[in-house]
């Protein structure tokens, strides 16, 4: 009997040792497994917190002018810009031990498992905020063991590499609140038309209940369900000592006003400009189309929404609504090339073709300032005189001929000054100057000014017969306006990623491409188109709008059979307007030829009306003197008209006008009296004398 007992004892001890060995093995295996999992999570490092988000476009006043998304609206805001009420409400209802656990709430897991066993079905969830965030960020929502294991690994990686504040920030920026709103900022804008940082306690407790069932608990879909969910959240906040019972009762009784829409108006501001921004993103940066659409970028553009609105309004006011004519407007800052406003056509919904950045049209006489800059650079002055008369020019090896004509075939048939030539837009003077300087000189200056495309070395180039882009023309005028510093049309100031890091910023250039003194003289000559002191055989080209202007501008108009242009500037703003038909339809109606100037005057005046008047400041190398506009000589007291004109120092006129000196008046008066004293025959004799 004793032998049997010993045998049983030995057998029992054998099993115990085996169980201990297996248990130890399993324990070691478990520890190694845990260490392995933790090591793997650490080696894998921090997973990215970003998900597809809306890219937001901002104007210079930091207002939202548009966004890109794939049927979803997403924004990312830092935790500091989210209402603490919303954070507390979310933690209270979703994961009350969020700040204490390491990603898994084991007590809650056990409780949920027991509840499921008692109900014999899945009735209670145990996922923490970290687990839900991992699921929303990286995983499909299928119910497989592989998915659960992957979710656990992502949760560990989040907890091991990020702070609780970073995790709750990411969670609140990615969860779905229904109606296409992803993240609390989009939800706040949609439901209450306000930022997440401004949510009240009542609004926060309403929103925090939606993610459990975005349709079922949406206050817009079912207010009763939403209010019941809000009551549960308020009770949970009381239990977790976030608020008192009295507060909860008051908040539950509070009536909320729901907005229920995204502000679509903001997404329709300056559509042509926004398309230009997207093209600039692809051509000027390394940002991919996918990043543009879903990267959560904040793109700070150069657009001034106020000036953009003015430009759009002026186009609509001036142009006959029944006309099929097209138009484009570009407004820039001459100091840096920033595009402040851009209208590429009359209706973006009907035609997305951007006439400001894509079309190539003949600029006509708006090309002449480049020629006259070149002329002054090579020794001409505003007083240089050439004869305005019908002229045939020969050019090329085969002696081709070219006979330009002035508007309506008007000619001075006498000499006029360079200052008059640009103000009156005399074509013969322009071609004579072009041929005298050498046809390649104008091409060189145009390239320095950023004009692209073909520029053939022919006489007619002086009259703007080669096609150019409007955006290039406006930028070139800006370079003259700023004293010759190189600029390029710019649509983007900087780009910030979803982490708040600046990933692109416009570089500033200081390259001097023109002589600043010559640029100023050119600018001052361009003010002449509005100054009727320069009237001669015809009137200055800006006379039709000069009475609408309240400050000094420099500018030039241009007209071809199919195109009407007006480009001009003040010290702080350049505006260009083009009007014409898309399919080479000629401008036959008188009104069509005036649209560009009228629109230009309206845009400049309204854009600057609240700003102090700025004058064009003479540079150090120029001298201003009063001259007689008819001959370019120094004016005397007897001259009926005199105009302040600037010259490169050392090139100003030194001779005084002889036509209006006092002794000349006396001499002419005496001759006249002598003739009148003589009889008819004596007068005839005198004519032959």
Low-confidence stretches: 664-689
Q: Structural class of the helix and strand makeup?
A: alpha+beta
Number of helices: 22
Q: Report strand %.
A: 5-15%
Can you tell me the overall shape?
A: elongated
Report how far the terminal alpha carbons are from each other. 173 Å
Average per-residue pLDDT, rounded, comes to 86
CATH H-tier superfamily of the domain at 75-264: Biosynthetic peptidoglycan transglycosylase-like
CATH overall fold name of the domain at 75-264: Penicillin binding protein transpeptidase fold
* Biggest sheet descriptor: 5 strands, mixed
What is the correct CATH architecture of the domain at 75-264? Orthogonal Bundle
Q: Strand order within the widest sheet?
A: 2-1-5-14-15
- Roughly what percent helix? 40-55%
CATH class of the domain at 75-264: Mainly Alpha
Integer-rounded radius of gyration: 39 Å
The count of strands amounts to 20
Organism: Bacillus suaedaesalsae
Protein name: PBP1A family penicillin-binding protein
Domain Glycosyl transferase family: 63-237
Domain Penicillin-binding protein transpeptidase: 328-572
